[in-house]
Amino acid sequence: MATSAITHPLPAATGFAHTLGIFRKETKYEFLKLMRTKSFSLSTIGFPVMFYVLFGVANRSAFAGNVHIAKYMLGGYACFGLIGAALFGIGVGLAGELAAGWLELKRASPMPAPAYLFAKCASAVAFGLIIVSILTAIATAFGGVSLTSTELVKMLGMTIVGSISFASMGLLLAQIIPANAATGIVNLIYLPMSFLSGLWMPLRFMPHWLQGVAPALPTYHLSQLMLSIFGYQDSMSLATHWNALLGFTLLMLGLSWLIFHRKEQNA
Amino acid sequence: MPLSAIAYETEQIAAKTSTSEPQQPIATLTNITKRYGTTVALDGLNLSLHPGEVVALLGPNGAGKSTAIKLLLGLIAPTSGTTRVFGSDPRNATTRTRVGAMLQVARITETLRVREHLDLFRSYYPRPLPVAEILRIAQLQGIEDRFFGQLSGGQKQRVLFALAICGNPDLIFLDEPTVGMDIEARRALWQQIRSLSTQGKTVLLTTHYLEEADTLAHRIIVINKGRVISAGTPAEIKRSGGGRTIRCQTRLSQEFLQTLPSVSNVAFNEGAVVVTASETETVVREMLSRDETLSDLEVAGPALEDAFLALTRNQ
């Protein structure tokens, strides 16, 4: 029998490198976890891809004025995909970790809380980029869509912006919805919101009264910013869309912060 | 087995004697009250932990055991009173690098491998233990490449134990550590807890298995309804619940038995008489001299379980 002596600790890592290491590992394992959780990775990547193949590629030769429908839909489904990754990855994932007590155990450890949030956000961005890249590849290969390299870079940039923005909504949802109903509730918010903002089909093909709802939704403003890369946006000014998206993000973060602190005080 | 049994005994004795001299506490709860709305979880609780000791926190469900641990971990704040761990606030980041915890967790990320969980948790600490050592201590060799979701209940508990010790902490909280473990795994974990204590580390554990508290703890603190109702060594706690019991078949009457010295209770159970007394030798000698037909004699030491029930029932 070995008397289990714990006697040889490794040399301590230095401050900054140590913290950076935590951020890196936390992000790596968050991403790995999401990738291996098939219910998440298959559906968040699969649904936008499937919808785009069905509705976008099918419209490869359809034009409405100067608007190439397959390209328009690429913008819409790019938003649909990245929003799904943010809402499900963070909203559903975090709600589950809160309920299981896993987050509590991590909070008792010396893990810096920002590392945890960064990992969730960075993974949402990574999934957003994967989805948008796949959609773009399909669009250019089979949808007859041509993109300039500037447009591509702008799309990926907008994907990062959108992922971070909707990560804030995921953060809020995780704190207010029960974990066992999280997927259902997120779907109830995500699907109607996507439809009503024209992410599935261009707004102009929808009834007029429905078009009036769209400007109240953050998804609409993100999609307009995405479409503006192709010059396909509505008449509203870009500044309005940027402000709306920023306001929405700050509102979500503010509410999350309030709820988190209320819970802390009652804990 | 004999060799390891000897090692285990000496280890235990060394551990128990090393903590006899008074030392500064490394963690304290002072006059803590914790309310959730109108419910009082802790009511003027005092508790201190000293280097190298294993303390068992016992109490019925809802007594406030987990609340006390969460306070010491800085996960919740007290309504009033002070919490100190290594001389500072338990929320302090540096304090947390010296603390490890095993909490009652429904599940942790199931799609990560045991090795990956350890890799991540080790990265939080400035001086973690080598992976091989953690695997050995928590007995995870051979399952380090499995996904957490594939493990049995006992294996999952061992992974959680591994996460608690991976940062080489000086103070370890174990909330119901052996739930779901088989006897063998439980005993192996006990041995690891003892060896943590011999290295000068402090362990606070809560448990429902009184045998666990009895074999492991240098000190037992019994709490109920948020208050400490009894504290002391396992032997002291057991004595406080009444003396040893004498069980036999006898013709002696209940009235007579009750007049014998130090007898606190006489009861009949399945045709046998059960006498509770502190001076059992005197009582037995007297009984044998008065009744030649006395048979099936058994004398049993006080059980922690009985003491525990007596203590919590009196509340």
Question: How would you describe what is shown here?
Answer:
Chain A has 267 residues and is mainly alpha-helical. Chain A is 74% helix and 1% strand. Chain A contains 10 helices and 2 strands; from the N terminus they run ααββαααααααα. In chain A, strands 1-2 form a two-stranded antiparallel ribbon. In chain A, strand 1 and strand 2 (67-68) form a beta hairpin. Chain A is globular, with a radius of gyration of 21 Å. In chain A, 40% of the residues are buried. Mean pLDDT of chain A is 91; it is low at 1-11. Chain B is of the alpha/beta class and 315 residues long. Chain B folds into 2 domains: 2-239, P-loop containing nucleotide triphosphate hydrolases (Rossmann fold, 3-Layer(aba) Sandwich); 241-302, Alpha-Beta Plaits. Chain B has helices at residues 2-18, 65-72, 93-96, 114-123, 131-137, 153-165, 183-198, 210-216, 234-240, 254-259, 280-290, 304-313, and strands at 27-36, 39-49, 54-58, 80-85, 99-102, 171-175, 202-206, 219-224, 227-232, 244-249, 263-269, 272-277, 295-300. A 6-stranded mixed beta sheet of chain B has the order 5-6-7-3-8-9, sandwiched between helices. In chain B, a hairpin with a 2-residue loop joins strand 1 (27-36) and strand 2 (39-49). The longest helix of chain B has 17 residues, at 2-18. The radius of gyration of chain B is 23 Å and the shape is elongated. The model of chain B is unreliable at 1-21 (pLDDT under 50).
Keywords summarizing the entry:
A: 267 residues; mainly alpha; two-stranded antiparallel sheet; 10 helices; 2 strands; B: 315 residues; alpha/beta; Rossmann fold; Alpha-Beta Plaits; 2 domains; six-stranded mixed β-sheet; four-stranded antiparallel β-sheet; 12 helices; 37% helix; disordered N terminus
